[in-house]
TrEMBL record:
Signal peptide: none annotated. PROSITE patterns: HTH_ARAC_FAMILY_2 (PS01124). SUPFAM superfamilies: Homeodomain-like, Regulatory protein AraC. Keywords: DNA-binding, Transcription, Transcription regulation. It comes from Shewanella vaxholmensis. This is AraC family transcriptional regulator. Residues 181-278 form the HTH araC/xylS-type domain. It comes from the Bacteria. PANTHER family: HTH-TYPE TRANSCRIPTIONAL ACTIVATOR RHAS-RELATED (PTHR46796), TRANSCRIPTIONAL REGULATOR-RELATED (PTHR46796:SF11).
Amino acid sequence: MSTAIPVENINYWRHPSLSGIELSQAEFTHFSFDKHVHLDYHLGVVTQGAQQFVNKGSSYQLGQHSLSTLNPDETHDGQSRDADGYRVKVMSIPVEYMNEVSQELGLKEHFFSAPMVDDPTLYQYFIQLHELLIQGQCSALAGESHLLNFIHLLLERYPSGVSSCISKPNQLQGLSKLQVSLVKQRIHDEPWHNTQLETLANEVSLSKFQFLRQFKQATGMTPHAYLKRVRLELAKKSLSHGALVADVAQQFGFFDQSHLNKAFKQAFLLSPVQFQRRML
């Protein structure tokens, strides 16, 4: 008989010597992640129960002994498979860090060809590494050595696939991958800007309705939902480096601090202040 997970709960950590590496551990029963993206690579394991999610139109179930391998900027959701809920450990790795490791292995850049791998050895290694880093008691040398060993093993076992973000001229129902990339890049470059739907549509020579439909078809998210998530991901990064909540709200285009608080808590289950306290 399974043991029910009582409440929704999430905690965040950052090892002092590993800049940009974000660690989290959560217990979810009813909470469901809407479709969203991350700016970093997200690796994770389920230690109790199972999570189900959709990635690139296909459904997956992440259970024990498997490792999630989500690339940056890939739309996905997430919820418990069972009524009892699930427990999950996650590590967020910046693109720059992953690229540096990839280059050491003779790769220009790395993209996982699947959002999860069934690998009991990596599963156990990840749990041990995660526990080591959240305890924060290992030296900088030991922490990064274990992290690099894990990433090396992961990349060697699962070579790079083809990224959905690579710009190519082939068409996606009217919007080419190049056009999608250009629109996304504009959003990333100017997340604070109150961009109009008509402006984005004009850049790719489509009507507002055509652009809205085709962008959602290509990415799984509306342009507004995508912009909102990018703003939230950038806000997390600024908060983890000690920025004031009011400044973060203004910097990334939220109406005010209250607007940021509501959106942040809806996405991450913590207020910006709570998240920042745990990260710092």
